[in-house]
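hey so i finally got around to running both of the ones u sent me last week. sorry it took forever, my laptop kept dying halfway thru and i had to restart like 3 times lol. anyway pasting them below in the order u listed, first the sequence line then the structure token line for each. didnt double check formatting much so if smth looks off just lmk and ill redo it

first one:
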Amino acid sequence: MVYFIGAGPGDIELITVKGMKLLQKADVVIYTGSLVSGNILDYCKEGVTIYNSASMSLPEVIDAIQEGIDQGKMVVRLHTGDPSIYGAIREQMDELDKRGIDFEIIPGVSSFVAAASRVKAEFTLPGVSQTIIITRKEGRTGTSEGGKISELAKHRASMAIFLSVQSISQVVEELLEGYNENTPVAVVYKATWPEEKIIRGTLKDIAEKVGDEKINRHAQILVGDFMGSQYELSKLYDSSFSHMYRSGKE
């Protein structure tokens, strides 16, 4: 069996319990070494075969999985964050399907929710935004299939932008097509890692601040008024609000 496991955003304790237990049993581990903390391999048992996929092509990854399966071994494909978000797992799963190899996906903590936790923010605030947009600036490995950032910005929803901090000035320019220049922004570099950095600002000044810190990779860009001070209280805990578990008081 092959297990695709989300390793979490960086802190090795943010892998799920299920993911950790499977990693402890694995005979073969193929991990995304450019993004996953190498310390997470401390969970592995002695004698495990480890591959760093940062230097491997898709055929090489699949061949390593096939070799493990042919030898009756348990294989873990360890991805950063949650494998369903920018994880490039569909192409791997399709290859495994072609070869009749069974697999399972174990979700993980994505970097966008880790970043929100580090800035102590809630994406979905009543009266502010009930929508989260997850996107990236178009580049060599992804186009704007769901709409350009400039188009998505017009929704003024809470937004988490992956893989784009290297183009922060262009990202800001596109965001200003929908948000105003005073919209709060946080850039979180390597959320939950020991070297984490949090840069706060607005669309007016965030590009300069990020440039001063020389951050050009491994960062989430969080945008929206959910990081502001104005919002409405939730009805869920409003003493006058009735629902199936509680009768409201006058």
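and the second one:
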Amino acid sequence: MTVVIGADRSGAGKTTVTLALLAYLAQYGSVQAFKVGPDYIDPMFHAAMTARPCRNLDPVLTSATYVQQCFARHCWGARWALVEGVMGLFDGVPIADVPDFASTAHVARLLELPVLLVLDCQRLSGSIAAIVSGFCSFDPRVRVAGVVLNRVGSDRHLELLSMALEPLQVPILGVLRRDDRIAIPDRHLGLVPTDELAHLAELRDCLSDLAATRFDWEQLLPLLAAPQRSHAATTASVRFPARVGIARDRAFNFYYPDNLDLLAALGAELVEWSPLSADTLPDVQGLYLGGGFPEVFAAELAANRSLRDCLRAAIVSNMPVYAECGGLMFLCRQLVDFSGRVWEMVGALPATATMGARLTLGYRQAIALRDSPLFRCGEVAWGHEFHRSTLGPAPDRPLFRTQGLAASTLIMEGWQTAQLHASYIHLHWGTRSELPARFLERCQHWGE
């Protein structure tokens, strides 16, 4: 069956509970993790706990059907599975006749899974009953299988919480006390990624030890069994053999595993390389520069002049290049960090990326204004933006016209020059396999 980890709001402890459960289960068998929404960083922690790629379940970026198929496909063969939700349980966006589209509750309904509700109890006692009662009754289609009480202060505090919940007959499946040992540092875009944490192994062991004694495993284990539902295998009717360089290191690590799987299924050989440490580009026919934190490692990127020169030369030679967000920033002429320091970047785009306090966040409908290695002019896709930088000057011939779900403001953004596609928009290719196929076809022709 398995469960979806939900909460009444953001910051209640979903990620801590999820990681503790994953770390403990992974000691005894294979466990597949999923994350609701477009997030990259939480899935990195899931993968670090399970040694398996975490899969994003996002019906805005893909579709409701794809969410169901992805879940069934990747649960297959795993002993346990777990889905971490996003924000509060019913926090979504109104689309069509679904008022909470893409919320944790929406995905729980799509997958027909119960919810394990995490509650931050540090400022609660008897009122917890009203909260749990409301979540249990708000949508009869969403079943609350139990609760996890997080940040419980004392035995007396737990006694008060338990007494309040007893009449509801909702089982308490976990109790976590306040514990600074399991705190994960964060910064301007959320948690610090796993590649930058020196104490990751220690954190995993601590979470596993915590889970061993803080959860009711007799009730939880049957709930967490991975469903073995029938699913269609993913096959590609046309293949485009090409070597594609994947920029992956501490500065660039925002990739949806499904995107990389699609490239491989279409015939690509994926070659990982590091813009931080490589002196030159690998022997490839195309490049995929994902998002990440070039602003944090700007000094190291600027110091690697030989690599920057090679990358600029590859773009001048019309090698197909696909760059998202952090990759886009790296291709700019300069990057101005949060301290106002200016760093030289690749220089393939006549723009400067400047870090700022304002967070640009949300789903975007992107309409292609011209052909690129992935898009045909006029095609539409849904993507996601998540950054604290701005680019200037604006492109003379923008790649996309974008619009948010609720906003009427149209934004022109993105760069397209010859075989280069560079944009702030993160794309999930799950339902758009023609996009990576076009990219690989360009790579194959360039190599020939």
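quick thing i noticed on the 2nd:
The chain has a mean pLDDT of 95.
anyway thats it, ttyl
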